[in-house]
Amino acid sequence: MTFPLQDVLALLKKEVQEYQVPVVDLIAAQTSDPFKILVATLLSARTKDEVTAAASRRLFARAGTVEELARLTVEELEQLIYPVGFYRNKARFLKQLPMVLQERFFGAIPQDIDALVSLPGVGRKTANLVLAVAFGKAAICVDTHVHRIMNIWGVVKTATPLQTEMALRRILPEQSWAEVNSILVAFGQGTCTPVRPHCDRCVVTSWCPRMGVTPRAVQAAGKRMALRRMEEKKFVSWNVNGIRAAMQKGLLEVLRGFDADIVALQEIKAQPEQLPAPLQHIDGYHAFWNPAQKKGYAGTAVLSKRAPLQVWHGLDEPRFDEEGRVLTLEFADFYFINVYTPNAQPELRRLAFKQDFNQALLAHMDRLARVKSLVLCGDLNVAHKEIDLANPKDNIRNPGFSPQERAWMDRIVEAGYIDTFRKFDASPARYTWWSYRFNARAKNIGWRIDYFIVDRASGDRVVEAAIHDEITGSDHCPVSMVFR
Questions:
Q1: Which residue of 36, 179, 388, 401 has the smallest Cβ count within 10 Å?
Q2: Residue 88 to residue 317: CA distance in whole angstroms
């Protein structure tokens, strides 16, 4: 049966009238100013609608025109739009925008897609949305909701939003292009959600083929528990201290044994082109690499069974990012951050660098945790409490247990983040790193410096957390977490 797309869109147009209005439509209802619609659309990328709306109000109170925007500094813009996603990048784009508009378009917002995508920070989705909402032109804005739902319906079989846009241009009559986005964004947020869509109350369920969809559970309690177990995800984090060396010590066998949904690796000490062939294509996983610029040093990697929505390398700070210490992956209902925190070094000579890094990392965590669940894992190079290392009195001023480093862990807890291992296990002598010297591992003279951390609101999603100190192959052992 052919999917009745036009009939379904007409039905959903009535259905979503009671739903929350997408933020760009809301702003368009309040103003017809193309400048404000462009800016609000730019701010909305990877940000919840309520966060975008609040940031837009603050910004437009100070800069309601291109000329007023030009007078603000990057620092002022950052303060006004925080905590929208990737606010530092967006602040820079906004700072550049007035000059580009003046030089190329006499200070006006252009009205064709090629000109719009030439503006700082403006991609095709944003450009199409501005054309449709601000100028009433025929344009199809395809975001993740439109792309996802059209594939669920079987209307298209596409791999990217751009492919979906091109297909819909051929399928849909031009007069219906403009409203597709607002209808499906509202529908995708309210009913056809990315995770556990509400198929049981969907008004188009009789037509929907549900391609690739796992609906939310509405079965009896026993079936709900079975489905919940199916939905649990296993995450593993391991500082491998050189991925090529770990390969020779059974890394792939360990990973196969875990069969984790996501594996985070730190201190890979290799460029992608230096990887052995078995590591370049690991069956069942999408691989993401963030090596340090300096060869044989630091670096992180993430292996994920499910393709993420987005991947970001670093913290948007060159002095940190050149060491390849952070990888962030976005999934439908959580962010996953893999981090390898700098070592403070003997005599704490790199402590200031580490503190700056930690401050940037916490700000990154806070931004993301305001949007959806956050999971952070990795080698944080600090033992938080005396229980977390074998000889606390002897190490009170040493790197990894200095008061300054421990104070940062205190800030993490005070901010509401949860050390997941301690949620389940308060026992001493549970360590994740041992020196290669003095037979330390055999004597269990170690430190617990590898963590899984989640935001406060996601504490109930953590099913278990564990240390796998029986696994060798590095001076660290793996740690894991099961997340619901």
A1: 179
A2: 10
Looking up residue 190, the CATH number of its domain turns out to be 1.10.340.30
How far is residue 73 from each of residues 54, 78, 118, 119, measured CA to CA in Å? 20, 9, 22, 18
Taking residue 218's Cβ as centre, other Cβ atoms within 10 Å add up to 11
Q: Give the pair of three-digit tokens for residue 442.
A: 């055999």
Choose between 21 and 72: higher pLDDT: 72
Residues 419-448: pLDDT tens digits? 999 999 988 899 999 999 988 998 899 999
Residue 217 domain-assigned (yes or no) = no
Give the number of other CB atoms < 10 A from CB of residue 313.
16
Is the domain of 327 the same as that of 248? yes
- Indicate if 172 and 252 belong to the same structural domain: no
Q: Cα–Cα distance between 266 and 225 in angstroms, integer?
A: 34
Residues 445 and 438: beta-carbon distance below 8 Å = yes
- Distance of alpha carbon 428 from alpha carbon 432, whole angstroms: 12
Host domain of residue 136? 5-201
What residues contact residue 179 under an 8 Å CB cut-off, 6+ apart? 9, 13
User: In this structure, is residue 225 part of a structural domain?
Assistant: no
Question: What does the pLDDT look like over 249-293, one tens digit per residue?
Answer: 889 888 988 899 999 999 999 998 898 888 888 889 999 999 999
DSSP assignment string, 47-86: S-HHHHHHHHHHHHHH-SSHHHHHTS-HHHHHHHHTTSTT
431/383 same-domain check = yes
- Last residue within a domain, chosen from 186, 201, 216: 201
User: How many domains does one find in the chain?
Assistant: 2
In the annotation, is 475 catalytic?
Answer: no
- Region of poorest pLDDT, from 15-24, 150-159, 449-458, 471-480: 15-24
Same domain, yes or no, for 293 and 332? yes
pLDDT at 250: 83
Phi, psi torsion values for 256, nearest 5 degrees: -65, -35
What CATH number does the domain containing 242 carry? 3.60.10.10
pTM for the predicted model, two decimal places:
0.56
Selecting among 261, 379, 450, 455, the annotated active-site residue is 379
Query: pLDDT band at 221, cuts 50/70/90?
Result: very low
Among residues 455, 449, 375, which one has the least CA distance to residue 406? 449
Residues 278 and 345 in one domain: yes
